[in-house]
Write a structure and sequence with these properties.
185 residues; 6 helices; globular; five-stranded parallel beta sheet
Length: 185
C-alpha cells in the first residue's frame, strides 16, 4: 500500500516538474516577443490617436509642429496621399506660417520613392523635392525597406531614410508635434 502511495506521489511530482519545465521554456520563448510588443506599444497607441486637420486649424496658438504620417498598403497610394498632405500643409501654413512640418511614409507607398521608380513616379518625386525645398522633410522607413531587400542607397538624396518609420513619428510626437494620419483615400 505504501508503495502505491509513493508511486502516486512520484507520478504527481514528475508531472509537476514537467509542467514547471514546460512553463519555464514557454516563458523563455515568449519573453523576447513580449518585450518587443511592449517596446512597440507606444507606436500602436499613436497609430490610433491622430488629430484631425480641423482640430489643429482651430487651435488659438501654434503647436510645436505637425507630423503627417502616411501608411497604406499600395505603392500607388502616394499619388493621392502626397497631394493630400500638400493640401494640409498649405492650410496649416496659411494659419501658422512658421509651423514646423514633416511627413513620414512607412507603408508600401514608400517604395514609389526609390531611385528605380523615379521615372515612373516623376510627379511624386518632384513633389518630395519641392517639400524638401520648403524645409519639410519626407521620411521613409529603412526597416521596412530592408524587408524588401532595399537600403538607404536605394532612395534619392531628397528622401530622408529613417531607421524606423514609427520611431520617427514617435520622435516628432515627443517634440510636441501634432499627428495627422493619412491611411486611406
Amino acid at each position: 500500500m505504501n508503495f502505491l502511495r509513493t508511486l502516486q506521489n512520484w507520478s504527481a511530482l514528475c508531472h509537476k516538474q514537467a509542467v514547471n519545465h514546460t512553463f519555464k521554456n514557454n516563458v523563455r520563448k515568449l519573453l523576447p516577443r513580449l518585450l518587443i510588443l511592449f517596446l512597440f506599444m507606444p507606436v500602436f497607441s499613436y497609430a490610433e490617436s491622430g488629430t484631425s486637420l480641423n482640430d489643429i486649424l482651430n487651435l488659438k496658438n501654434q503647436p510645436a509642429g505637425v507630423i503627417i504620417e502616411i501608411v497604406t498598403g499600395d505603392e500607388e497610394n502616394l499619388e493621392w496621399a502626397l497631394p493630400r498632405a500638400k493640401e494640409y500643409i498649405q492650410q496649416l501654413r496659411k494659419k501658422f506660417p512658421e509651423l514646423p512640418l514633416a511627413i513620414v511614409s512607412h507603408g508600401s507607398e514608400q517604395f514609389a520613392l526609390t531611385k528605380d521608380n523615379q521615372q515612373e513616379n516623376k510627379e511624386i518625386h518632384q513633389l518630395v523635392k519641392s517639400l524638401g525645398n520648403d524645409d519639410i522633410p519626407v521620411h521613409v522607413c529603412e526597416t521596412y525597406a530592408g524587408w524588401r531587400g532595399l537600403s538607404t542607397e536605394d532612395f534619392p538624396d531628397y528622401v530622408n531614410v529613417a531607421a524606423a518609420g514609427p520611431a520617427q513619428v514617435n520622435d516628432y510626437i515627443a517634440l510636441g508635434y501634432e499627428l495627422i494620419i493619412i491611411d486611406e483615400e
